[in-house]
Design a protein that fits this description.
It is built from 1 helix and 15 strands. The protein is an alpha+beta fold. The protein has a domain of about 140 residues. The strands form 3 sheets. It has a 5-stranded antiparallel β-sheet, with no helix packed on it. A 5-stranded antiparallel β-sheet has the order 6-10-9-8-7, with no helix packed on it. A 5-stranded antiparallel β-sheet has the order 11-15-14-13-12. β2 and β3 form a beta hairpin.
């Protein structure tokens, strides 16, 4: 009998336990599922936060990179523009300074050259005058009482001339003037040791300020001075004139300028007739 009671109690206990399990199990299962959902939602929100952070970071980093690139480009462009402006200013200043220096150098060189040439011409003129073969000749335009006995009489135009060794005499107020040789007059004999030169393919002879060219029948004709010709001596009697700040020598309607040749000697160039 006791064994039956104990079995019955055991059965009742099992039934009560199964009933309790039946009552409490759904709520627990629901709670667990709810907790699982909450955990999953928490995890998804955390994962979304984690996933959203890198995206924002990438976007921010890309924006920062673009900004840095733009800033670097702007900086490079500004530096390049500044360098170009500075270089152009430096070039302009350098060009202006170079031009000023060149102009100053040219002026100084011109002044030095002028002074040197003037000094050389003055020194060489003294030397030329000492060695001038015409230094013992009468001054052009001066008058004498008579001409040499062995002079040759030449009628040219309306005037009578007497010629002797490269010098022409013409009557003037009862005396005889040392005259300019008229252009076109011809002589048979050249003066002694004339200076011969070739100018543009033509032979010229120069003596005592007069230029000659060979003509037919063995005559020598007095011609104008060829422009560009260079001679060593001028006879006494020329005039000194200044044109455009430069000194020239005027003789028989011809303008000469003094230059220095390669040997450092003063010579005279025909510049205008």
């Amino acid at each position: 009998m006791k064994n039956q009671k104990s079995k019955f109690k055991a059965i009742l206990g099992m039934l009560f336990a199964s009933l309790c399990l039946t009552i409490f199990m759904p709520s627990e299962t629901f709670a667990q599922s709810k907790r699982a959902k909450i955990k999953r939602s928490t995890r998804s929100s955390k994962s979304f936060a984690r996933s959203s952070r890198p995206n924002n970071t990438r976007a921010n980093s890309s924006r920062n990179r673009i900004t840095r690139n733009n800033q670097s480009r702007i900086g490079r462009n500004n530096s390049a523009a500044a360098r170009s402006n500075n270089s152009s200013r430096v070039r302009r200043k350098g060009t202006t300074a170079t031009r000023r220096n060149n102009a100053t150098t040219r002026r100084n060189n011109r002044n030095v050259t002028t002074r040197r040439n003037t000094g050389n011409i003055a020194r060489n003129r003294a030397r030329v005058n000492r060695g001038n073969r015409f230094r013992n000749f009468p001054r052009r335009g001066s008058t004498v009482r008579s001409f040499p006995r062995r002079s040759t009489s030449i009628r040219f135009g309306l005037n009578n001339y007497w010629y002797n060794r490269g010098i022409f005499y013409r009557p003037f107020n009862g005396r005889y003037i040392i005259a300019r040789a008229p252009i076109g007059i011809r002589i048979r004999v050249l003066p002694p040791n004339p200076f011969r030169f070739v100018h543009f393919g033509h032979n010229y002879y120069y003596y005592y300020g007069t230029y000659y060219r060979t003509r037919a029948n063995g005559y020598y004709e007095v011609v104008n001075a060829p422009v560009g010709a260079i001679i060593e001596y001028l006879p006494d009697g020329y005039e000194t004139v200044v044109l455009d700040g430069r000194e020239y020598y005027y003789l028989d309607g011809t303008y000469y300028k003094a230059i220095v040749d390669y040997n450092g000697n003063a010579v005279y160039e025909v510049v205008r007739v």
